[in-house]
Amino acid sequence: MKDSNLVDHPLILQLRAGDQRAFTKLYEMYSPILLQRLDSLLPDQDIILEIHQTAFIRIWFYRKNILSESGIWPLLHRIARNLVVDYYREASTNEAIKQALLMQATLFYELEEADDSTRSLMEQLYSAIDRLPEKRKAIFMLCKFQGKSYEEAAKLHDVSIGTVKDHMAKAMRFLQQELGPKMYSLLLSLLSFCI
Fold first, then answer.
1. Alpha carbons 177 and 124: distance in angstroms, whole number
2. Residue 73 DSSP class
3. Quick one: pLDDT band at residue 21, thresholds 50, 70, 90?
């Protein structure tokens, strides 16, 4: 999107002055990109269109604050991201599910803009979790990503709470060894949003 800033510059200056034709041109340039991004994040076409339209309406209202050097995409991107997060926040009543959805939407949105090194780090993280033994992975996912207590996980897997604690300790130890300090810190940060 950086190259488009040069094309955007005169249009943004016109938009800031209230020129509706400049707004229409910018809408035509960025509408398909935003729709594609929203389509990959949201489950319902009506919600996609509503957020899409709201994002552009806010661009019109904030037009005087757009920096022509930055282009329109950073502001449009941030507005749409916030609207998606708000949608997921309102859509869920279960706090653990809400936090997991928020994190997933936020990470997905950010990873769309991420470079290859960020994608590589996330792949390493998920790959390490996938290498856990099946039962340990299942218990880990229940407790850390679905917000279940050790007692609930024990009941679901028909094991003692002590067994769940053992699986969790071994899973965390394994992930710490596999990921190294930097990646393990990232995992702990991600987990803090899920529970």
1. 13
2. H
3. very high
**CA-wise closest residue to 191 among 22, 42, 183:** 183
Q: In angstroms, rounded to a whole number, what is the distance separating the alpha carbons of residues 176 and 187? A: 9
The secondary structure of residue 41, as a DSSP letter, is T
Name the nearest CA neighbour of 87 among 34, 119, 43: 43
Please tell me the total number of residues recorded for the chain in this structure.
195
Measured CA distances, 74 to 53, 161, 175 (Å): 17, 48, 35
Instruction: Please report the pLDDT score of residue 2 as a whole number.
Output: 46
* Short-list 139, 119, 127, 103, CA closest to 175: 127
In this predicted model, what pLDDT tens digit does every residue of 61-89 receive, in sequence order? 888 878 777 788 888 988 998 888 788 77
Q: How open is the CA angle 15-19-25, to the nearest 5 degrees?
A: 70
